[in-house]
Amino acid sequence: MKIAILNKEGNSTNRSVELTDSVFGIDPNDHAIYLDVKQYLANQRQGTHKSKQRNEIAGSTKKLHKQKGTGGARKGSIKSPLLRGGGRIFGPQPRDYSFKLNKKVKSLARLSALSYKAKENNIVVLEDFSFDAPKTKFYTDFLNNLKLSDKKTLFIVGDSNKNLYLSSRNLSGTKVVAASDINTYDILKANCLIISESAIVKMENILSSN
Description:
With 210 residues, the chain is of the alpha/beta class.
């Protein structure tokens, strides 16, 4: 699949790049995508939720009233889960939500997500560039030139680019990431992928070797 290479002004450079079918043209595996996204979201959870059980509640253990003859239910302690302010039955406890996923499944999920974007023609390839200084206006003008200011975008660069990252940081709906750090969730969340020339080569090298 051939895609024209644009410059940061959104104009054609009269050059094109061939996207490898083994990375951008596979038959997508939806279940692999589901598992990878599920793992990514699970890893974002802190798992610090906690409620007190009856043995952790501050209060007297004195029996509230005699067992029989009151006409009401038996109550052994003010810390009973059945009373207001008592402990909670089977409440949440701190836990680790992360789980293991094979590297080949994660790689297949990324390939599937990239292939979906390629089939939908939601990939833009740019020649490598950088900003002279970190400035949000530079990045907004750049998105306007590409007519992508109203879409969620993921900009994949070959190596970490500090000025590009800092220029985009204050904007919602856009993200700059190195080719070695891409994940399935970010790819699917974006309406359009912006990929630099050097990132294409790196992504194909990384994903083809897995």
